[in-house]
Amino acid sequence: MTEELFREDSYLRECTAAVTAAAPGHVVLDRTVFYPTGGGQPGDTGVLELPDGTEIVVRDTVKQDDAIIHLIATDAAPPAPGTPVTARIDWARRHRHMRMHSLLHLVCASVPCHITGAQVGAEKSRIDFDTGDRTLDKETLTAELNRLVAADLPLSHRWITDDELDAKPELVRTMSVQPPRGTGRVRLMEVAGVDLQPCGGTHVGRTGEIGRVAVSKIENKGKRNRRVNVVLIEN
Length: 235
Description:
The chain is of the alpha+beta class. It has three helices and 15 strands. Helix 1 crosses helix 2 (138-150). It has helices spanning 91-110, 138-150, 162-167; strands at residues 3-4, 14-23, 26-29, 31-32, 46-49, 55-64, 67-72, 84-89, 114-119, 125-130, 155-161, 185-191, 195-198, 213-220, 225-232. Strands 2-3-7-6-5-8 form a six-stranded antiparallel beta barrel. Strands 9-10-15-14 form a four-stranded antiparallel β-sheet, with helices on one face. The two termini are 36 Å apart. It folds into two domains: 10-89, Elongation Factor Tu (Ef-tu), domain 3 (Beta Barrel); 94-232, Threonyl-trna Synthetase, Chain A, domain 2 (Threonyl-tRNA Synthetase, Chain A, domain 2, 2-Layer Sandwich), CATH 3.30.980.
């Protein structure tokens, strides 16, 4: 099992770790700051620095069972098990994902409809809703999102048991994807007074860190489905 340091602190940019398994194209560590693809958020990229200063580029990160796989070039020599490394993420890319993922929670708070899909990106993100007869207006939604950003609300997480989540099914906003289970606990992400739902992704500490945003487009994706596309105005 890989210790997932990013679950408790999204701001960790690097950590020391030891290689537990390796093969052409991938490396597994005993602990990592690299977020693996999941929940609509892309996996982190970055480098693994060896004791001699050599850097192995991590081109993507995925999860397989209880292990986090750091994907490297297939022609790169993987470090042997037991090798100490410094795992360092591409912070600029990760931080944009943190801002974007937090922004999508504000979109959720502003559109009281079930979620049918979502995708976090560094340049643009989107979230799909089953809106029924509800009409969404791009300018109105943009104004509300920027109001929540300007309010500089704190974000925090906590853990609850599977049974506690079962007792509060209203916490789950997604229609097609259930929160990951099997470990006995589920991570809740909260935007103070605004949004509370299961989420394993990385987020900023306060909404003000997101910066000014805009709804770039609202698309019709079916009779009841509407796609809200959002972008960051501030780099």
